[in-house]
Structure formats: structure tokens, C-alpha cells
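Section 5: illustrative case.
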């Protein structure tokens, strides 16, 4: 027995070592390319060097002071030469190094008596004379963490996320009276709703990734988020359904999780708009998202239409789907990070797409006529159409 075990252990170890060999060889090849610098590319041709522009990440306002956070997106070092406010050179100090290496950041502090509500432009010029200009629609004091602001963002998040989803769940009594054909149509409607949310989140993710320096691999970051959430939700669906098709409360829970991750992104957008001084946009987003999110409650209610569910369970579904909006509003209002934004919208897209798969499996297995039935096709298209129309209202 011992000899057999040893014989089996030998091939296993050898198999694992051979599995590592391609990775090691790839690392050596990549290292050789990196160490060669630009000499390899020069065999084919050369590109003009990129403009020595900074990446202005955030402009913060406090009484008598403007704080400009800049990052160097270029391969070579960039040095801060001067700073302009409304086309006038102003004195400044730098909180951090004045010469920034690749992807390094510093904060430029400008003593300036700005006027509340006035538009302005700020510019940062590199030592090579290239100026990066950033426009501010309206100068307002940057929110600082406070009890009042904390509660304000929480109230906004609740109005946008929790209230509409709870109102949408009020369709549950009507759904309990619906026939199997109509119920399958509403299930397909849920799939259309989630498909729209998934593509919407994916579009937002790629927009944010386009703003990132090439070194951060924006598209790869988005796809990583999609893969992580899709596979994670697949594993969760398997756990909740015991390996079979998710249905009833388990399917409603998956829908609520997918919607909740998407609503986190809506909270980010609202919080960031207020933090950047775009008050009118933020107010418009609140009203638009409230209308947009009522249909999400319908999507959560449909899988449990024929299942006995307690009020406590319904409240939990509402919080799972709506409360992330509050977290997003806090994060968007007090921080700004496009890397996390791109990653999280990718995660939201992957979660939505996975739940579409689960809902599709449910319709195919339980609906009269399956996925090819007219009510399922019309329901799916109606879900996309309704989300599109309400999305237009959200701006």
C-alpha cells in the first residue's frame, strides 16, 4: 500500500511541475521583452511621444483654497511647472513631489478666494509647456464627512434605491392572481430588465476604463470584474438551488443581489455629481432613477408570486436590492476613484448577466412553451423597452 501511494504521489507532483513550466517560460519571455525597452519596437517603426499632459483627478474647494489632485499617466516623469485659474497664473504649493513618476499623484494647493456657484477653469502646465485644463461648472465647497452630510446621502440613497423597489413589490398581490402564461411573461420581463441593466453597467464600465491610463489596463479590469461576479453568482446560485434551476425565493434573492450591485453604481453617480458641484444633474438623477427603479421591484416579486413569503423576507429583499444605493452615494460623495468605478460596474454587469441566465433557465423549464413562446419573447422585449424609456427619464 505504501509503495503504491508513493508511486501515485510521484506522477502527481510531476504533473504539477509540468503545469508550472509554461508560466515560468512566459515570465522569462515577457521579462526579455520588457528589458529590451523600445529597441524591439524600433525594428518596425516608432510612434511620436505622448503629450506631456497631466491627468487631473479631482478639484476640491474649501474656503480660500483650491486643491487639485493630479496624476502622471505618461511613461516618463512629469514635473509641475505652473498652475492657472481662469487663465491667470497663480501661486501654489505641492502636497507631495513636484516631479511625478508614472501613475504617481500629488495634490496642488492653491490659495484662492473663489466665489460660490461661479464656473471656472483650472490648468496645470508641465515643464515642457503642455497645459492640462479642467472645467468646473460651478464652484461649491467640497463636502466633508459630517453627520448631516452622512444622513443626507443616506436619505438620497433610500429614496432612489429602497423606496422604488418597495413600491414595485406592491405588484406581488396582483402577480399571485396571474395565470401561468402571464407569470412566465413577467419572468421574461425580469430577464429583459436585467439584460438592459447589464449592458448599461458594461457601457459605464468601459466609459470609465477609457479615462484610465493605459498602464492600468482598463478593458482588462472591466472583464476581470465581469468574470469575478459572473462566476461568483454562478456558485451562489448553485448553493441556493442545490445544483438545480433556481426558483422561488432563491431566484428572487439572486435577482435582488444583481439589482443591488447595479444600484450601487447609481448611488456612485449621484454622490459624485453632488461632490463635483453638478447639483442640477444630481437632482435630475434622483428623480430619474426613482422612476427607473420601480420596475426592479416587479422583477424581484415575480419569482415568488406562487410562493408563501413572510414580510420579513420581503423586507430583506428590498434592503438587498436598494440599500447598496446608500453605500454608493457615500462613496461617490466623499471619494473619487475611476479604477474602482470601472471594476465595480464590470462586477455589476457580470452579476446581471448571470441572473439573466438563471431566469432564462427557469422560463425554459417552467413556462408554457418555454423560451420560444410568444409571451416569453414579448415579455423579454418589453423589459428592455420599459427600462430604456425610464432610463431616458434618468438622463
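Designed sequence:
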Amino acid at each position: 500500500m505504501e509503495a503504491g501511494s508513493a508511486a501515485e504521489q510521484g506522477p502527481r507532483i510531476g504533473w504539477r511541475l509540468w503545469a508550472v513550466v509554461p508560466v515560468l517560460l512566459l515570465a522569462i519571455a515577457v521579462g526579455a521583452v520588457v528589458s529590451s525597452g523600445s529597441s524591439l519596437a524600433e525594428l518596425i517603426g516608432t510612434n511620436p511621444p505622448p503629450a506631456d499632459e497631466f491627468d487631473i483627478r479631482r478639484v476640491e474647494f474649501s474656503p480660500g483654497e483650491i486643491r487639485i489632485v493630479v496624476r502622471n499617466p505618461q511613461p516618463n516623469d512629469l514635473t509641475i511647472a505652473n498652475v492657472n485659474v481662469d487663465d491667470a497664473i497663480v501661486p501654489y504649493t505641492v502636497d507631495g513631489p513636484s516631479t511625478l513618476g508614472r501613475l504617481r499623484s500629488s495634490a496642488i494647493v492653491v490659495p484662492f478666494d473663489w466665489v460660490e456657484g461661479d464656473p471656472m477653469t483650472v490648468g496645470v502646465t508641465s515643464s515642457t509647456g503642455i497645459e492640462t485644463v479642467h472645467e468646473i461648472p460651478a464652484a461649491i465647497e467640497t463636502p466633508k464627512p459630517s453627520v448631516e452630510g452622512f444622513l443626507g446621502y443616506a436619505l438620497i440613497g433610500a429614496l432612489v434605491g429602497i423606496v422604488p423597489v418597495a413600491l414595485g413589490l406592491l405588484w406581488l398581490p396582483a402577480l399571485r392572481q396571474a395565470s401561468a402564461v402571464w407569470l412566465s411573461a413577467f419572468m421574461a420581463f425580469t430577464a429583459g430588465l436585467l439584460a438592459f441593466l447589464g449592458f448599461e453597467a458594461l457601457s459605464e464600465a468601459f466609459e470609465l476604463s477609457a479615462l484610465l491610463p493605459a498602464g492600468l489596463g482598463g478593458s482588462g479590469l472591466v472583464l476581470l470584474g465581469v468574470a469575478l461576479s459572473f462566476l461568483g453568482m454562478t456558485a451562489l446560485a448553485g448553493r441556493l438551488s442545490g445544483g438545480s434551476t433556481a426558483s422561488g425565493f432563491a431566484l428572487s434573492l439572486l435577482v435582488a443581489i444583481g439589482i443591488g450591485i447595479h444600484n450601487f453604481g447609481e448611488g456612485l453617480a449621484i454622490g459624485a455629481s453632488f461632490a463635483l458641484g453638478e447639483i442640477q444633474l444630481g437632482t435630475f438623477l434622483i428623480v430619474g432613477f426613482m422612476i427607473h427603479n420601480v420596475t426592479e421591484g416587479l422583477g424581484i416579486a415575480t419569482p415568488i408570486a406562487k410562493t408563501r413569503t413572510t414580510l420579513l423576507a420581503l423586507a430583506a429583499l428590498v434592503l438587498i436590492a436598494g440599500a447598496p444605493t446608500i453605500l454608493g452615494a457615500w462613496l461617490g460623495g466623499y471619494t473619487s476613484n475611476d479604477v474602482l468605478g470601472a471594476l465595480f460596474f464590470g462586477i455589476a454587469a457580470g452579476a446581471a448577466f448571470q441572473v439573466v441566465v438563471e431566469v432564462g433557465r427557469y422560463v425554459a423549464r417552467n413556462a408554457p412553451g418555454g423560451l420560444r413562446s410568444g409571451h416569453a419573447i414579448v415579455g423579454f422585449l418589453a423589459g428592455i423597452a420599459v427600462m430604456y424609456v425610464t432610463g431616458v427619464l434618468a438622463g
